[in-house]
What we know:
The chain is of the alpha/beta class. It folds into two domains: 2-169 and 353-380, Rossmann fold (3-Layer(aba) Sandwich); 189-350, Rossmann fold (3-Layer(aba) Sandwich). Helix content is 42%, strand content 14%. It has helices at residues 15-26, 55-76, 90-103, 119-125, 129-138, 154-158, 203-216, 232-242, 258-267, 284-291, 304-307, 323-335, 342-350, 353-365, 372-380, and strands at residues 2-6, 34-38, 80-83, 109-113, 144-147, 164-166, 189-194, 221-226, 250-254, 270-273, 296-299, 315-318.
Amino acid sequence: xxxxxxxxxxxxxxxxxxxxxxxxxxxxxxxxxxxxxxxxxxxxxxxxxxxxxxxxxxxxxxxxxxxxxxxxxxxxxxxxxxxxxxxxxxxxxxxxxxxxxxxxxxxxxxxxxxxxxxxxxxxxxxxxxxxxxxxxxxxxxxxxxxxxxxxxxxxxxxxxxxxxxxxxxxxxxxxxxxxxxxxxxxxxxxxxxxxxxxxxxxxxxxxxxxxxxxxxxxxxxxxxxxxxxxxxxxxxxxxxxxxxxxxxxxxxxxxxxxxxxxxxxxxxxxxxxxxxxxxxxxxxxxxxxxxxxxxxxxxxxxxxxxxxxxxxxxxxxxxxxxxxxxxxxxxxxxxxxxxxxxxxxxxxxxxxxxxxxxxxxxxxxxxxxxxxxxxxxxxxx
Length: 381
């Protein structure tokens, strides 16, 4: 089959763009699926991107990508249009509606891959009647909707997808972790926060927890933060906070590529992501922590409980916005035995790129590209 992928690859680097890049690379030599790619990149930053760019320029760029889509469709005859709906925000919805209005009628099959969540409820609660009607017309009745976990299928169900398939996220295999170092006596435990540096992702709750642990037991832990900031205000707030803390208690490592992440995880005694991010679905950084066999402190947010091994002595769940619970969990993690491959075994069983691509390929091949139903649907839009 031929699949036209209308989605961005890094930069910026985040779970969605990394997954798209891995899919395109994974299918590059596959004899059964030919991928045509339109790199619909909005920004090279970690934020929502392009806030300073004029609306007209952004609209013209969007139309240019759609024109490229038409060219590829005419030249190669791709039957399926693959698209990643945006988060439940009016600006993202308008972008989705423009793209699908200009592209969906030319394709008999529509594949939606849901990474952000909450659009269905947002449409019911906050959208105007026109937005709701257009969304159901252009995003509704997708031939195939891909969701990251069963708990995340609500948007696809509300938009009446013809078929819904669970395709979990994946992360590149870093290989077996090195033997865990034996720290010197009284050396601080290394805690790692990796992800978008925002309040919602739990960064500042983690800093509060580290400060609290230091107050109770000086030198007990040290925090390394890696990732980009959503905006300049968050960057300033972080550094203003860190300079007030004891020297060396919190270290900012900046953006980490794959090699740097491997080193950070190798040094980490615990990984902390107490997220309450509104659009969170299945955090890729948690998959990376599993792959590197690092104990995890996180929240029971969205699909997170289901993606981690059940009743694991190496996973600690905390309530949202509770730094004291995070501090207690970090202390418990520091006293617990090392996972010794248990968390990595869960990764190998569920989240490798090979397993992801095999599940994705089976889902895509379930589409009957010869069916006339898709052509009728496209003509009705």
